[in-house]
Specification:
Blueprint lengths: L8 E5 L4 H12 L3 E6 L11 E5 L20 E6 L14 H15 L4 E7 L9 H10 L7 E6 L1 E3 L5 H12 L2 E5 L4 E2 L1 E3 H13 L7 E4 L5 E2 H13 L4 E5 L1 H11 L9 H9 L7 H6 L7 H11 L2 H15 L5 H13 L10 H5 L18 H13 L3 H8 L6 H28 L1
Helix pairs in contact: 1-5, 2-3, 4-6, 6-10, 7-8, 11-12, 11-14
Amino acid sequence: MPLENPTQHIVVTGASGYIGASLVEVLLQQGFYVTALGRSRGNGSGHPHFRLIEWDLTARPPAEAFAVSARFGKPIAVIHLAHKWQSNSCEEIDENYQATQELLALSRSCGIAKFIFASSMSARHDALNRYGRVKARIEELLFGPGEIAVRIGMVYGGAERGLWGTLCDLVGRTPILPMVQPGTLVQPIHIDETITGLIRLATTHDGTKPMMAFGADEPVPFCVCLREIARYRYGKSLKIIPIPLWLALTAVKVAGVLPFFPARLEQRILGLAGLKTLPSQSDMNFLGLNLKPFTCALHDDMKRKPRPLIEEGRILFKYGFRAEPSCRFLKRYVRALTAIGDPRPLVLPAMVKRWPALMAFIEPFPGKKGGNELQRRLRFMLHIAETTPEAVRSLYDYRGRGLFRISFVVLQTALREAVSFPFRLLRRIFQ
């Protein structure tokens, strides 16, 4: 619902990150004015209620962001989401701590009513990772009225970015996943619920506590979350192999010399290994949040986000007919899959997504029970495509093509089948 007072203004740091980008989008939809402190416009680009003031955590916060302006007015809250993972300084002078200290001092001097700091469930002085220890030190800076540390659990859903994007990538790429302490309990919370909670916290005047917990009150084993992601998002099973912490850290250090290796993976592993849970039900009740069960929210996400299915339909059609599908076909494909209650996209290799013809090397032989999921989707695509004009022309209409062209297509198809046959056979043997 739009605000009654459309000049309510919120300052957001980390506005281009996983949570920040969605937060800015929702704030603008609800009629807020938003000032983003950062280096990227993110989802606010071009919106009249949005402005970007360039800033990073190594610089002094700009006073103009908090100054009263004729168009934006005085900010009612600061939501501090930004965090710098890579640091060359020691923990005592960590950039995140120094920047938050300066940002908080500026907010106090300008009389901002709310300062909301995005912390973590891993925030403790004895945390195994630097991230958790720094977050705990920053929390101690918040002692004034309206200054709140929000310990946020495992955020999931929405765009595949941040930790959520990393988890989806890991689960989607492999059926077997080595993992440190798979039984570690986490408190999941959907990205939409996280954003709703942050906005309500920023606009609530009474009853807030210095520290709030965002997440499911009933924790879930992390391995269960990963298996559910595999099941609901990719339609497959996931086998998890427990590995010792020391072995995982050694492997990360060895692989860390590679230029493309994720720089923050060691911090993620240590954070998971030392994760603790917090009671959160009273905080969720205070903000009027009734969190959906993890599996229900995943299923709803797949119904609301048909983009992966659109891409899947395009790839399958190009493989089958060597032509771009129409929008009409793609809409029918997505609607039909959703109607039969199977909106999970296939997990296809990156090379196949770029060159659909390479699917010939992974297409399985027909099985006794109807084949695997890829075969079922290909048959499903053919049933829908046979009623579309572009498919009919590709399959049955040879007018104007010429004998040479028709012969070339037939020869090309036969050659592709002959080359791909050994690969398909090996794939069937070793599956």
